[in-house]
Write a structure and sequence with these properties.
Helices cover 42% and strands 38% of the residues. By secondary structure, the chain is an alpha+beta fold. The protein has a domain of 113 residues: Nuclear Transport Factor 2, Chain: A. The protein has a six-stranded mixed sheet with strand order 2-1-6-5-4-3. β3 and β4 form a beta hairpin. The protein is globular, with a radius of gyration of 24 Å. 13% of the residues are buried.
C-alpha cells in the first residue's frame, strides 16, 4: 500500500520529470529544426545539381556531387529484367554523347528528404522531358553521405514509365 508520504514523493518526482520533458520538448525541436532545415537545403542542392548537370551537359558538376564509390542503379527493360550498375562517369559520357542540341530536362516534384546525422535519403516523383517533349516519369531515390561539410551522392536509383504520369 502506498503511504501519503510516498505518494507525494512520487507525484513531485513525476511533476519534475514531466516539467523537464516539456521544457526539452519546446527547446530541442528548434535546435534540431534549424540544423535539419540547413541540411535539408544542402541535400536538395546536391540532388538538384544532378538535374542542372544533365540539363547543361556539365560533367564537372556531375562528378562533383557524386562520391567516388557512387553508382546509378537501374533495371534493364530489354529481355529478361536485370539490374544494371553504372558509374557517374559512364552516365556523364552518355550526357556528352547525346544528340547535339538535345536538352535533358528532369524535374523532381515535392521530394521527401530524410536525414539522420551524416546520411540522407531523397525520394520523389520526377518527370523527364527531352527538349520540350515529355518522355517519361518515375521515382528517383538518392542516398547521400555527409563527408566533412559536403553532401555526396553514393547511390541513385530510379524507375521509368510512360503511363500514370502527372
Amino acid at each position: 500500500m502506498l503511504t501519503i508520504r510516498a505518494f507525494r514523493h512520487r507525484s513531485i518526482r513525476l511533476a519534475a520529470t514531466t516539467s523537464a520533458a516539456a521544457m526539452l520538448a519546446t527547446i530541442a525541436p528548434e535546435r534540431v529544426a534549424a540544423q535539419s532545415s540547413a541540411d535539408t537545403a544542402a541535400v536538395l542542392a546536391t540532388v538538384n545539381s544532378v538535374f542542372k548537370a544533365m540539363h547543361d551537359r556539365d560533367t564537372v558538376l556531375l562528378k562533383s556531387v557524386f562520391d567516388t564509390s557512387a553508382r546509378l542503379v537501374g533495371l534493364s527493360r530489354r529481355g529478361t529484367p536485370s539490374v544494371s550498375l553504372v558509374t557517374p562517369s559512364r552516365f556523364g559520357a552518355a550526357l556528352v554523347g547525346a544528340k547535339p542540341g538535345d536538352v535533358w530536362n528532369e524535374k523532381m516534384i515535392n521530394p521527401e528528404v530524410r536525414i539522420d546525422g551524416t546520411i540522407a535519403q531523397v525520394w520523389g516523383y520526377y518527370t523527364f522531358h527531352l527538349n520540350d517533349t515529355f518522355s517519361h516519369c518515375g521515382i528517383d531515390a538518392f542516398m547521400l553521405v555527409k563527408v566533412g561539410d559536403t553532401w555526396k551522392i553514393t547511390q541513385l536509383a530510379d524507375t521509368e514509365r510512360k503511363d500514370g504520369c502527372k
